Every structure is written in C-alpha cells, then in structure tokens.
Amino acid sequence: MSDEASIQFSEREALLFHSEGRPGKIEIIASKPMATQRDLALAYSPGVAVPVQAIADDPSTAYDYTAKGNLVAVISNGTAILGMGNLGALASKPVMEGKAVLFKRFADVDSIDIELKTEDVNRFIDAVELMEPTFGGINLEDIKAPECFIIEQTLRERMNIPVFHDDQHGTAIICAAGLINACLLTGRRLDEVKIVVNGAGAAAIACTELMKAMGVRHNNVIMCDRTGVIYQGREDVNQWQSAHAAVTDRRSLTEALDGADMFLGLSAAGALKPEMVKDMAPSPIIFAMANPEPEIRPELAKAARPDAIVATGRSDYPNQVNNVICFPFIFRGALDVRATGINDAMKIAAANAIAELARQRVPEEVAMAYGVQHSFGPEYIIPSPFDPRLMELVPTAVAKAAMDSGVATKPIINMDSYRQTLRARLNPTTSVLSLAYEGARARPKRVLFAEGEEEVVLRAAISFKEGGYGTPVLVGRDDVYDRLKALGVANPQEYEVHNSRHSPLVPKMVDFVYGRLQRRGYLRRDVERMINQDRNVFGAALLQLGEADVMITGITRTWAESMRQVKRVIDPEAGRTPFGIHVLVGQSHTVFIADTTVNERPTGEQLADFAEQTAQVARRMGHEPRVAMLSYSTFGNPKGAWVDNIRDAVSVLDGRNVGFEYEGEMPPDVALNPKQLANYPFARLSGPANVLIMPGLQSAHIAAKLLRELGGESVIGPMLIGMEKPVQIAPMTSTASELVTLAVLAAGGIAR
C-alpha cells in the first residue's frame, strides 16, 4: 500500500521534484575507478575478456564478476498504475523509477525500471524471460488482473531467478504480519479466525492465499466483490476467484460480516459501514486498505466498536500496511542466497519476522521520531517502515527460509556475520532523517520562513504545510497570497503572513531590538528602518516574541550577511559559541564537519566544545562519534606554527573525560583511511573518523564547499548550532526540499 496517501503536494511541486537537476529519480554510476588507461583496459578491452571466459566456463560466476547478483528489474506495462488505471507503459515510468529508488534506499538493492509497451500477455512474458541473464530478480508492478496472475505464474515456471509481483505478495505479507499480531492480542488462533475479504482483485486473492497457507481454514474465509459474496456455483467469476468460493448461503457483504472476526478490505472507499462493524465478533480486526480513502475511517470504526483493531494503507493513522516494509527486504534475502524463486516459505518467514519486530521494544530513534513511546498493542501491530532493524531481521529470515526450502544456491554459513553485513549496507542517517520527518508530523512546530516572497521558499512552505510537518509562518509583502495562488494553493488565506509595513507587532519588536542595540550606536529610527526593511531582523524579532518556534532564512543573502542580521536580534546560547556543521551523507556512511561557517581562528577550548557538540548531533542522527582533530600535521610531523589550537583541543578533551573516541592532530587521509591509520598504532580511533573538527574557518569552509560541488555526496547544511533560538541559515542555492529538511531538523531538535 502507498505511504503517500496522506501527503498532498501541488502539481507544480511534484513536477519540479522530478525535473530539477537531473530529470527523473535514478542514475547509474561506476562502481570501479575509471581514472586511468589501465582502469579502462581492465574494465573493458582487453581485461574484460577474462571474466567473460570465466562466466562462459561457469555461468554461476556471473554473480561474482558482474552486478547481476544485486540487480532487480522493476517491470510494468502500465495497465494498473496506482489507483489511476490503464495509462500505458510510458506513463508508468515515474512509478517504476520510484520503486527502484525504494529498493536502493531501504535495502541497497540496485534496480532498473523497464516499461514494456504491450498488453499481450505472451509478448510480455517472452520479453521478460529473455532478460534473465541480466538480472538477479524480477519485480512485477502495476499489471492488471487477471493478466498479472498468468504473467507471474508463467515467469516463475520459466525463469530460474526470483519473480515477485509486489502488488499481490507484498501487500499479502504485511497483512499476514498484522493478522498474526492482531490474533495474538485478541486471543485468536489462525485456524479459528473467520475472515471476510472485500475485493477480489490481485492483492485480495494473494492475501487470501497467503493467509490460508499460514493456517487460516478455507471454510472460514468469505470473499466478496462488487456483486456480493463469491459462493460455490456462482458463474460470473474467473478461475482465480472461484478457487476461493465459499460454501455459504450468505450473499451480501453485510450478511458475510455478521459474526466475522476480521474484515480485510482491498476495495473502495466507504465500503464498510459502521453498522456492519457493530455486527462483527468481539474485538474485531479491521484492515481497511483502499487508497487514498479507506473502506472505513479508523475513527468511525472505533466509534462503532471501541474494541476494534484497525489498520489502513495511510501513514496518518496507526498500523499502516505499507509494502516498503516487505519488498526491498525479501529481495535482499533472496539475492544474497542466490535463490531460484520466492516461495510461500519465504513469504511466511518475512511475515513472521515483521510481526515479531512489532512485538519487540521500539528503538529510541523510532520513539523520538513519533514523539511517543510506541509499544506492541492495538495501535502498533505493524512496525514503522523506518525501523532500522527491518534491514537485519527480514532478509535474514527470508534467506534462512530459502535455504531450508531448497531454493538457495549459495547458502549462508555464518548468519551472525551476514547480519553484520546487512547492518553495514545502509547509512543510519537516512533512517534518522526519515524518522525526523515522521517526528515532525507527530510534534508539529511553527516554522518561520523569513523570505516568503521567494518562489523556492514558498514551495518549501507549501511542502512543509501539506506534508503535515507543522505550520509555516511567512514573512513578506502584500503579494504573497497571489504568489501562493500562482503555485496552485487553492486557499492562500490559510497561510499566516506577517508584513512589516502593517504588522501590529512592530512597536513591540522595535522596543525589543532597540533595547539590545541602543548602546551599540543605533538610533531608534535605525531600528525602525531595520524592522521595516530587513526581513531577517523582522523575522528574528518574531521568533524572539514567540510567534514561531524555528526560523529559516538564507536564500536572498550571503550566509555571513544573514548571520550578522540575525545576531542583532538573537544571541548565542549562554555558555556556547555558535558554529556550523556540514553533513555529508553517502549510501553507507555519514561524515560531520565543523566549524564550517562562523569562527575564523577558534581556540583549543572552542574546538573542544565543537567536538563535544558535534558528537551530540552525530548521536542524535544515529551514529557513534569518532572525532578527528584535523591538521596538515600528523602527530607533530611536520612541525608548524598553526597547530597549537588543535593540540590544545585534544588536551582539553583529555581533561573533560568525554564519552566518545577522539584523536589528533592528523590529516584527513589518516582520519578516514584505515590503512593510513594503521601506521599509528597508538591512535585512539577504533575505525575511520565520522566527525571532522577543522582547525580554522578557511580550511573548513573551502573543504565543505568543495565537497558539496565535487564530492558527489548528498550534503546537509550548514546546520547552525549554539544559538539561543533555533535559527537555520540555508545556502542561497538551496532547493525547496533542502529547506524543508533544515526546517524539520531544527524543529525536531536534531540541529540545536
């Protein structure tokens, strides 16, 4: 089920997201260096002839010498796109690219989207079958029923790699996991539970088949379609539906639900009425998964039956049935053991692992994100999609099931080592950032966008509001509402706009700021002019008066100028020196660099402070800090006149008894390259540093900007740390998404 159901965007924002920078959502990068003639000779001719011959001699070595073993094709013909219908192969491409992104984001599986321009089942099957040498697995997507049944079954028979139709089996696995836990909470057994399935499409049939494979009795399931109950003897059903025809005299959904334990909805909005819910068995289980609007809203179901356990496909309600909890991880496990297929044993193993995860204590990062301490119960039977433990538990269970059921061609000998490998595949920052967004929804804040006349800022404010992250507070002139309307906002007046020319708060602002600046050479009329004309001063004064919780600026001024303006109104937090952090986020690593924005020649004491505070930020983003105090000198070689502050910082940290690893002075290669670090066995770092404390602003600022422009990594920041009020100054080139990320990190207390 989609995790986007409750999040609304303007059409313009959605189009800009897909078109800005490199069009689309995926790219292909080289995994080997291609810098020299020798590299090219090894990668192509003549060096490539060696693995070619090796694969010809032993086809299984293709997994060793090519990307096949970590490559999944996401394939569709566009005949059932989301809930939009048959819009054709080309129109399905954004969806398939999105699926490919989710494979990479959640399970480090490389994926390529393929859209086939045919509705002919045989041509589709032939096309996919012919691509078996290329891929390690096939994920079918958005193919209408009943063709999807024929396609999947035939491909599973013909191909010797995993074939998985996510619309069917991904949904089924998450439903099964939720059912396991719902039965546990309500004291039911799977072989006793009575289920009514409303909907008779691909997903409904797959859910029914998997539940029966797990122990639900055939005679305890009644399937309904638009006409009513699918019963034995009914003629207007296909062979896949007739396989689940019930022996019953009930003919309508209302009759079927009388005394039922569970409603499983994969149908249409509003199909389940409150009065039907009242007729169900005690502690009814209701999975209403129609999107974007469920068969019944949870609040209506709860009003009718307070003892109900309710799940939906939406992210704004508890117990979201979200396929991303399943499909990346089931492929991860299948690929890692080179499975020849994905069978019921692997699906059941995935469902049990997901169900078990929901019963475990929720990790702190998940709890922080949602603002509440989730625990197993009626409101938490399905784990969060952003629970980092999914990557470890689900692939392990799937891989073991593949080995036990005989479809694994490369069994895993050491499961503990495999779990370690899985943990190392993903960068915890990506999960923490996702969790921060979820946390923003749970604890919405008022975020002031000081440059509310700029299009990129307005798009960020729209995304912030419609994403449910909080309330945007805009600073701008009279035309802000017109600009919002031009961006597709139906009711611009819903947005709070503060205009310095006629704000009733101006006198109070002037009093406050003049009180700060009157002994710094400013006249009252100077302050009045600043409040009226300078959006950063005006915005910072609004923040000081409590009109917002966080302030975002930077698009229209240089970082240094914005900082000067903000500091006229907002002081550093008592006992702290403000500084900036750039965060480099790679697929499997994150590096924090400080101070990159504020202090030109920090003292040893200040550098020690930066190290401690950056270490705290690193921990809030899911990392155990290893701090390197950087210099051109490696432990005194060569000697220099400008390394004293670095040495002093190490001495200060020695005296503070801090709870993290640190070392210095050292250059970046020693800090980041284990082979270089090994030359210094006395060094106190147990691995590559992930927090880099720079000796001065020149080197720090230059390094951060170079990495942003040339490094090929995702860069967050700079994040401003140490001000008495949460203020973030974004780069002038920031996109709307980057502004929203900064706002969420600041509002959530990660950047503080």
Topology:
Elements: H1 11-19, H2 37-43, H3 49-57, H4 62-65, E1 71-76, H5 93-107, E2 110-115, H6 121-129, E3 137-140, H7 147-158, E4 163-165, H8 166-186, E5 195-198, H9 202-213, E6 221-224, H10 239-242, H11 253-257, E7 262-265, H12 274-278, E8 285-288, H13 298-304, E9 309-312, H14 327-336, H15 344-359, H16 364-370, H17 390-404, H18 415-425, H19 428-442, E10 445-449, H20 455-466, E11 470-475, H21 480-486, E12 496-498, H22 506-517, H23 524-533, H24 535-544, E13 550-553, H25 559-567, E14 579-585, E15 590-594, H26 604-620, E16 626-630, H27 644-656, E17 661-666, H28 668-672, H29 674-677, E18 691-693, H30 697-710, E19 714-721, E20 727-729, H31 736-747
Parallel strand pairs: 1-2, 1-3, 3-4, 5-6, 5-7, 7-8, 8-9, 10-11, 10-13, 11-12, 13-20, 15-18, 16-17, 16-18
Antiparallel strand pairs: 14-15, 14-19
Query: What share of the residues lie within helices?
Result: 40-55%
User: Strand portion, in percent?
Assistant: 5-15%
Top CATH class of the domain at 11-165: Alpha Beta
- For the secondary structure, the number of strands is 20
Number of helix segments?
A: 31
Task: Give the name of the CATH superfamily of the domain at 11-165.
Answer: Malic enzyme, N-terminal domain
Radius of gyration: 29 Å
What about the largest sheet?
6 strands, mixed
Uncertain spans, ≥5 residues at pLDDT below 50?
1-7
Structural class: alpha/beta
CATH topology (fold) name of the domain at 11-165: Rossmann fold
Gross morphology? globular
Span of the ends, CA to CA: 35 Å
CATH architectural name of the domain at 11-165: 3-Layer(aba) Sandwich
**For the largest beta sheet, what order do the strands appear in spatially?**
17-16-18-15-14-19
Overall pLDDT metric: 91
